Amino acid sequence: MKKKVILNILLVLLLSINNLMAQMPLSKIKEQQTQAHQLANKKEYKKALHLYSKVFGEYSTQNLYQAAIDCGMEAANICIAASQYKEAFEWYKEITKVIGIAATKSGQLQNVNYFNVAKERFMLNMKLKNQVQSDAQLTRLQALAVAMQDTTIDNNLLYMQSAYDYMYGKNNAGDSAFNRLIDFYNQRQEYEEVNGYFRSLIDMSLQMNNSQMMDHIYKNYMVWNDSIQNIEAQDKITKLEEKYGEVLFHMSDKEDQLSYRLFIIVGTCILLGIITFLLILLFINQMRLKANNHRCKRRISSLQEFSELKSQFIHNISTHLQPSLSNFSEVASQLPANFNIEKQQILQQSDAIKNYLNHIDELSELELSADKLYETQSINVKSFCDGIAEKVTPNIKNEVILNIEVPKIEIEANKEQLSRILIHLLQNAVSHTNEGTIRLEFKKRGAHLHQFIVSDTGSGVSQEMQSQLFKPFKKIDDLTKGDGLGLPICKMIAKKMNGSLVFDSTYKKGARFILDLRS
User: Fold this and answer.
1) What angle do CA 472, 478, 479 make, to 5 degrees?
2) Full-prediction pTM beyond 0.70?
């Protein structure tokens, strides 16, 4: 019995020694983390993320949880820089798991780490305009702030609350939260902190292309800036007035000394001159700020007017060219029979140019009205998708199977525009799939989020072309084979349906497009 116990103890010791030998030295881990950081600076994101994954695993294995958490946050930031948002969310999930393990093993609350992860998830969801997830993360942040009772955390929460409200048009609620944040720093005269928060909100509105948010915040910033300058000027005037009062006191105290009184009078005049000079400077500064504000408004108005003129110009070009192209087609159709091939080519090229002009005109109109959403109506997804399938089925090759995987469910959407997007995606799939399957799916991702997914087993899209899919005027090809404006138009239509259209780069069996719609 004793021999068996001794053998078991020796076996446990041997396994522990093996585990220690298998672990990577801490200096090596830090060296790899430094290499990963250098690769990220060179924008070699794939290599950097591979190294970060190894370092994250080593830190976690050796119970260096805070180092693992910091490493994971760096990796998530790199994913965001590389526009790999799905991977960033995966990193946040892994970081949250490590935080949970750290809390369990140390017996200490990890609220600060939980708060930081929730904050980054919130900011990324705001960047992606995912209101449902942004709201969920904001609720999580509020609960953590209540538990921590920390002033810095409370101020961060006020900033994120105001950013959320401004982003989704709740300006009154946003002003309420942001004014509490401003009051906190104003009372401490920490005006640079407030200035930094204003600039951060303005930068956020620019990144998210939210002109209404930027205009509202900029107006609030100008009002605050004017008030602070008035306060600072008033403080200077008050100090000068105090000095002026002291001078008057000395004058009354030594009235018998004429020379001293003259000195006091001269000093008083100088002080009054300084006060007058400061008041003039304050007035000039306020007039300059008003002039700058007026110039900014004029610039914004000029940009809007330029956009409208651009759209009108494009429309006029299309309108003026249409009759000429029609006459060109009519003349071509009257060519003799021995020019039949040339006639067909001319007609085909003429029709392609007409379609190209129409697409350019439509794309310009969509850009101009991007903030005006389409009206919606109730749609039965099953019958709607079956109708779309009937339209594309005649063009499908014999070796290809079309699968429609949608439930019988009612949603709110614009039927005409939704049909345009799905038909275009399916026709693209038909054109690039010679065998295998084409699939149209519907998934409900939340109370107000729906997904239509079109995938195929065709030739797929090259890595080089993926970044150009939704950019107009990038395709250089024969117009009779397509003008490359279909997907950019579909993306703009999706935006006006309060949704988004993306290409799934993680799908490797062909091509997959995902249409998100928010109701």
Assistant:
1) 60
2) no
